[in-house]
Design brief:
Length: 428
Amino acid sequence: MTSSLLTDANRRLERALKHVHISEDASERLKFPKASLKVSIPVRMDDGSLRVFEGYRVRYDDTRGPTKGGIRFHPNVTMDEVQSLAFWMTFKCAAVNLPFGGAKGGITLNPKELSKFELERLSRGYVDAIADFIGPDIDIPAPDVYTNPMIMGWMMDQYSIIRRQLSPAVMTGKPVGMGGSQGRDRATGTGAFYVLAAMMAKFDRNPATTTVAVQGFGNAGSVVARLLFEAGYQVVAVSDSHGGLYCDRGLDIPSLQQFKASTRSLQAVYCEGTVCNLVDGHDTITNDELLTLDVDILIPAALENQITAENASQIQAEYIFEVANGPITSAGDRILEDRGIYVFPDILVNAGGVTVSYYEWVQNRSGLYWSEAEVSDRLKNKLVAEAEDIWRISQNLAIPLRTAAYVHALERLEAAHSARGTRDYYVS
């Protein structure tokens, strides 16, 4: 492989292959994406100038069903990154037994530099460019970094215009008024909380004496922080792209959410008006410092490659729950494993988003919509059951939880590939 991120991602696959028997056909096919698309998106800016943005969409594997994956707007989006994320989505969908394969998409830009009108034109232009590559039975995009329900609504609407028919099932994570599912906006963080609570019960941890640090106070990180706070955990540190906040007595997460929403930055929380009263005795910290805090649970909920060979030896947390995609490199994984740190992998922990996206897709296709309570119950039952299976595999085979999650996914992917015929079938 020539792509560094994808090469690193494949190292996880290679470790899992030692613990499960799958055909040579399946293991070979899973090393490469099925289809990759790069497009140019011309956008007329508000000042009349024309800018051309680069966009990507990758369908990694569709053996178990149409592909599924988010679209991110970020300056660091590359084909390498999108392929890696599509790879992870393939195993995530299989690990939690969704009838999907993996996909991902993105546009290289800083969305904060665009007006809302420019973002809409960009979003619709992206769909114009990839319309033949996606569809309710082919590939179903969803929100990711710096995309949201409004953007997914624009994209669904544009696809419907192109097809000349209303097509709500082509996109998930839409506004509820456009066919979105109840609970989708909180699904990633909610699912992560369900997995964390179920797994912590195995260690007899008392929430009141369990400290937590959350890197990334966005859609997923802020939700899981809020749920942990409400469950009695001591959330002592949070951060966003501008920096972080630490208080050894615990932070008032609901108040931080409120001020983050109104100021768009935790930085404004530090000493604005009476807000400092909410976090009296706090320290400001960097994202790097947050990762190495002396806490029980560390939750990386920002971007990939945050814990590497360079800083893994400094991690003090006993448990890590990956809410971000790929926040730990394979080299970092090895160091954490040698140190006895439990790493609960992204393809399980952050699967709440794609799970409720699946529920949204089902609701769009059936025309039968569920309440938020129904969605939440279905999400909890599914993720806790899959977490228990992955824990059992890890214990039975004496392997890390990440490897166990890949073994769990590979067993399902092998069944789908073998059903189509492999070398053993044709030469027997």
